[in-house]
Amino acid sequence: MDRYEGFHEFVRTRQQSLMRTAYLLTGNAHLAEDLLQTVLTRVASHWAKLAKGGNPEAYARKALVNQTISWRKRKRIELSEAELPEFAASGQPHDEATVRRIALLHALARLTPKQRALIVLRFYEDRTEHETAQLLGVSVGTVKSQTHYALSKLRALVPQEVYR
Amino acid sequence: MNPLREDLHALAEQAPAVDLAAQAVRGARRRRATRLAVAIAAATCLVAGGGTVLLQQLRPEPPIVLTPPETTVSPLPSEGVEPIEQAYRPECRTTACAKNAWRLVTRDGDTYELTAAPETGPLAVTADGRRLAYYSSKQRTIVVRDLASGKTWKSPLKQPAEDFSRSAEHTLRLSPSGLRFIVSSWGGRREPNKLVDVERGTVSDLPRGWWPVSVSDGSGPVVLVKPYENSSQVQVLGHDPITIPDFTYDYSALAPDGRTLTRLGQTYDPNRRPMVQLDGSIVVFDPMRGGRETRVPISGIPEGLQPSGLGGWLNSTEVTVVATPESPRGPKPTVYAMDVRTGKTRELFALRNYGKTLVPGLVH
Which end of chain B is more exposed for a tag (fewer CB within 10 A), N or C? Predict the structure, then answer.
């Protein structure tokens, strides 16, 4: 029997969703790919056990978060400070949402890896405070306080102050 | 959906399409092969050991009792300590040992425990191993200590412990004498990036967002870098920044000539995973003028180890290189001296690899 039976299917169906989370966690396409590659290698190593009774996706998501936090220094990427061109490719001025999202990307880069993971888990993956606490290995109280802190920081950094 | 959720989803859609299944399986197979090789080697040792026991039973000899090597650790004396070769914080997987103190290993093999430094604060050792700097939560400042004489200097900059909390990242970069340093932290509520001179008692602000690479004694050059997605800016304070074509943090200290900096060479290939890989070379460049770079292949490092960090200079041509194993079960991490003109290395010492390790002068 192939040791990795079912793994290719798992990756084929879930990798893009995992890649989106990895991209939000790192803010950089190359790092996101490296991160996911590392995590999927680990999933493949434990595939026999995970395929039997485990939850490969939950394992992969937890590993994504843990790995990105341990890649602390690598995450300190400065995004290009170049100004956004006045007009989009269509010749129309950029809409408000595009400008706001670029500001959000820059603001996320200023958070600590853990705070960034909190924002992604709570507001992108819509995890409960309890689930987030379990994934990050912290108390629910820490999730609450750090979320509050991370949101305050985002509000301060995104000039439109829309994330109420 | 509120705007934050909406924007996060829109940003996530920008993630590139990937197909990683085959690479992941290849990686897992490599890991498995390594594990099996180690298991076979261990089994061979056991069999060989068993054979030895049988022979000993047939030909009785006085028993030889082998005890596991034990490190004698004493508290760091206030003076008379030899230069430090390396420091490590023992690996800890339980809360019981969470407060493990740093251990300092001197060049003549003594091991001391540094209880004065808090568990989360920075610790740095000058490249020559003779001076130590750490955050003292009691004095709320960085303390520099000469290990031989016991003389200490206190930083004039008072800092709350939260500058070095677990949620923040920090760097303490020392000059060769340790009397001038950069302390910076980010990710916490405050984000100091300060240049401190403990001899003159001065503190000056450094530009935000720039990561410290090297600081010289007196009023010598200070080198800062700022990585971007596919490039980095390098700035010698007081000069215009130059741009290099790599995203990297792997720099050496500034050479004694004050105008040579090195970094580990890397390649970018979108068809390989990871796309950015260290290529086993060192790149020598002028951080003030930029321009022509020299790429020198590093030689003399055994298979299974890869150059992964650079540090201080031993003389005008040799810089320290740390080589770490490519797999967790590879050879011990080792520190080398490398001639930047030829790339030739000579081994200095192996690291103990008992957990978090610190090499004096390493830029990390």
Answer: N
Select from A123, A147, A151 the residue whose CB has the most chain B CBs within 10 Å, as the one to mutate to test that interface.
Answer: A123
User: B280 CB near a chain A CB, below 8 Å?
Assistant: no
Residues 30-89 of B with CB under 8 A from A: 31-32
User: What is the b/e burial string over B231-269, where b = at least 16 CB atoms within 10 angstroms of the residue's CB?
Assistant: ebbbbbeeeebbebebbbbbbbbbbeeeebbbbbbbeee
Give the integer Cα–Cα distance in Å for B257 and B260: 7
The per-residue DSSP string of B162-179 comes to GGGSTTSEEEEEE-TTSS
* Tens digit of each residue's pLDDT, chain B (364 residues): 578 888 899 999 888 888 888 878 877 776 665 554 444 444 433 334 443 333 333 344 444 444 434 568 888 998 999 999 999 887 665 555 556 788 999 998 899 999 887 777 889 999 999 999 999 988 999 999 999 999 999 999 999 888 887 666 788 999 999 999 999 887 666 778 999 999 999 999 999 888 899 999 999 999 999 887 678 899 999 999 999 998 888 999 999 999 999 999 998 776 766 667 889 999 999 999 998 999 999 999 998 899 989 999 999 999 999 998 877 677 888 999 999 999 999 999 999 865 678 999 999 8
Q: Which chain B residues have a beta carbon less than 8 Å from that of A111?
A: 187
Window 87-126 of A: residues touching B by CB (8 A cutoff) are 97, 100-101, 104-105, 111-115, 119-120, 123-124, 126
- Give the predicted TM-score (pTM) of the model: 0.62
Please give, rounded to a whole number of angstroms, the shortest distance from the CA of B101 to a CA of chain A. Answer: 21
Residue of B nearest to A101 (CA): B7
Out of B12, B188, B275, the one facing A124 most closely (by C-beta) is B12
User: What is the ipTM score, two decimals?
Assistant: 0.85
A2 contact B CB<8A: no
CA gap A121, A25 in Å, rounded? 9
Q: Are A77 and B247 in contact (CB under 8 A)?
A: yes
* 3-class secondary structure per residue, B253-270: CCCCCCCCEEEEEEEECC
SS3 content of chain A, % helix, strand, coil (to 5): 70, 0, 30
Which one, of A140, A123, A142, lies nearest residue A131 by Cα? A140
CB A120 within 8 A of CB A21: yes
